[in-house]
Amino acid sequence: MLRGGNWINHTAKLRVAARLNGPGHGYGPDGFRCVSRSNFISDSSERGAIASDEEVSLSEEAPSGEKVLLPLSGKEVLDLADTSRPFSRASYALNLKTGLNMISLPVKPNSLVTAKTLVRDLAATVILRLDADTQKFIPFVPEHYESTNFEIEGGMGIIVNVTEDKTHTFTGTIWSNTPLAAPTISSNPVWAFTFLCRGRSLKGDLEVANLSQGMIYPAQWDEDCQLGIASVVDSTQQAVISNGDLIQVTAHGQRWRYRVSERDLANAFVDLKLGDNLLVPDQTQLLQNYPNPFNPETWIPFELSLDTEVTVIIYDVQGKQIRKLQLGMMMAGRYVTAGQVVHWEGRSETGGTIASGTYFYQIEAGGYTETRKMVVLK
User: Fold this and answer.
1) Which helix (H) or strand (E) holds 116?
2) Residue 267 has what DSSP assignment?
3) List of domains in the chain
4) Whole-model pTM?
């Protein structure tokens, strides 16, 4: 709470600053570094409002040990302990950057603020709060996971994610006995992320792992929503997830895998519908090519239960090798859709077009080998 001086009658531009022992590392000669900028406007009508362009820094400790407002111009010192002329209401313009922002309510609004109303006002994709009892982060995701809606109170730190830079003005009563928290912002890397997991057989022993980074994210089951949730936050604002990371969800012996996209990172959450398309197969197998018969090209689907090197070899009816397709290391999963399956354009190793007839295709995946028949019909 800001008190003292002639704040009732002024519009003042404030810069919230932290003071160290001296200049350097972004600090000015007076030992202050600007960490947030905002516009406070008193709406008291006791006297006529007088506009002021004077900028001040808020220090933590004065040499005397008392908290003071230090004008950058050095013209006067305003004692915050002077409560004779406090102003009761103000407007605060909060600047949010694209990505993750850690904020708290700068003033006590006129009406109740909840996660749902704040998401609406900020057009945020997700809001996170720390549960004091469980020490776990609880997400609120509009239209995806709203049962965790909560009231936002003074002094409560929350994490919000927005997809574009924006400014939102809060108007209300100045908090008493609640310090004003400046926002901390880090849009890159993504240091807070939420997974929502939907699907069969998830209830019970649920685990969410980032295979690309070797991390396991704490997960829990929401019985009311029939939903698995995992939220991870790095307090030092280091990346917890990156584009292309391979995520594995495990429950009751079944595994699902998903690769994180840029869109997921922009939203700071992903809603995973764990169906057959993400399910890791129980066994490796070679599936029938399609179309069959074909001319001149075909696609060869397969499933892998383990991460392994994969090779597909084409033979003619005499057992002569026509083409060898080395796919390299492949992750466990189902390779059955366009862009995933093996494509053979009907040409030999030297690039020649093959003749009509019966051919065989064989897969080698670790210790697994299987062969199937296909027909070229021209």
Assistant:
1) helix 115-122
2) H
3) 7-87 (no CATH), 95-166+179-186 (no CATH), 192-273 (2.60.40), 285-376 (2.60.40.4070)
4) 0.67
